[in-house]
Amino acid sequence: MWTDLVDIGRSPTTGGYRRFALTPEDGQLREWFEQEATRRGLDLTVDRAGNQWAWWGNPDFDGPGIATGSHLDSVPDGGAFDGPLGVVSAFAALDLLVLQGITLSRPIGIACFSDEEGSRFGVACSGSRVLTGALDPDRARALTDQDGMSYADAMAWAGRAPHLLAPDPEALARVDTFVELHVEQGRGLIECKAPVGVASEIWPHGRWRFSFTGRADHAGTTRMSDRADPMLTFAVTALAANKQARSREARATFGRVTLAPNGTNAIPSQVTAWLDARAEAPDTLDALVTELCRQATERAERDGTTVEVTVESSTGLVSFDVPLRDRLAAVLGGAPVLPTAAGHDAGVLSTAGIRTAMLFVRNPTGISHSPEEHAELGDCAAGVRALADVLRDLAT
Ligand code: HGY
Ligand code: MN
Ligand code: MN
Q1: How far away, in angstroms, is 104 Cα from ligand 3 center?
Q2: Helix (H, G, I), strand (E, B) or coil at 392
Q3: Ligand 1, CB cutoff 6 Å, lining residues
Q4: For position 307, what pLDDT does the model report?
Q5: Residue 370: nearest ligand to its CA?
Q6: Domains of the chain: residue spans and CATH
Q7: Mind listing the pLDDT tens digit for each residue in 323-382?
Q8: What is the pLDDT of residue 304?
Q9: Which residues of 308-337 are buried (b: 16+ CB within 10 A; e: fewer)?
Q10: pTM over 0.90
Q11: Closest-lying ligand to the alpha carbon of 83?
């Protein structure tokens, strides 16, 4: 399975992945999922939000089942594991259960969520958010990519009917419990010296778009005192974000910036920068963003520029179901339990009231969202065995 996926959307120059929603690469990945499901005789469905599901057993007749899975899309220049490890491990765990000859007392489903990273249209987990009603379909349809193409038009391009995009309570009702396996995006399991761990919670996090507006002018002839340069306002804001995050033991990153007119010898008229911020507690995150907006506005006044801040997405603290988490840790012989600051579809499902847990597989460097993201084969195999053990415990 890994070999089949390895070339899809991979940049020959960086080795990183560019697998964005509603693109030819996304189409290939969806086709791969269909083939893996069909090959195993699973029932394939696509919910109204565009997420793929493959069921072993019929949750409409046999009652809600145990679902696992993850996503196949990536960030720009992402690693091979963030997302695909969870989907591949789900199929592999199912194969293991078939080999073990188990008899299910409830169905098992594999989900492949659409657009988890939000790399193209800006909102993370748009597939699971539309599914659960956390993202209004009208808002989703109106989201645009960097070329101005709307989500609705991209859906139509991919052969999907935009007007059918909607929450899907029936699809959700098929899921009693969801367990997502994911590569760890940190160094927690290295410190615990364990190949597999169980998630306790996801930090609150969000994305904010900062639009800094100034006045374009000549880089040579405009005196420094006569400028209204939004790049300065942005630069000071980026430094302030770093300082605010450090002092609060939180995280703040400006990882994406566009500017106009983007000429070496022109003062910019516009800088747009996206803040990704996260903290252990909701109050800390609120305080960080509020203080950053205050400092950006204050600096804009000094620079003769303006700043406008728009929330693009926001996710509260996710505390995974404690009895389920403890049950998984016990099934896995006392696996470590640890929090994460990375967002996941599992968090969206948990917030929607579904009993949800996550398994993490050790990442030997902790690096993620980079071509250097990695997991050793032995740890991936341990992840598959752990997922199979958990599914067997829950579904038999
Ligand atoms: O950005 C995130 O937290 C994630 O990896 N989707
Ligand atoms: Mn990710
Ligand atoms: Mn992921």
Answers
A1: 28
A2: helix
A3: 82, 116-117, 124, 342-343
A4: 98
A5: 2
A6: 2-203+317-395 (3.40.630.10), 205-315 (3.30.70.360)
A7: 999 999 999 999 999 999 999 999 999 999 999 999 999 999 999 999 999 999 999 999
A8: 98
A9: eeeebbebebbebbeebbebbbebbeebbb
A10: yes
A11: 3
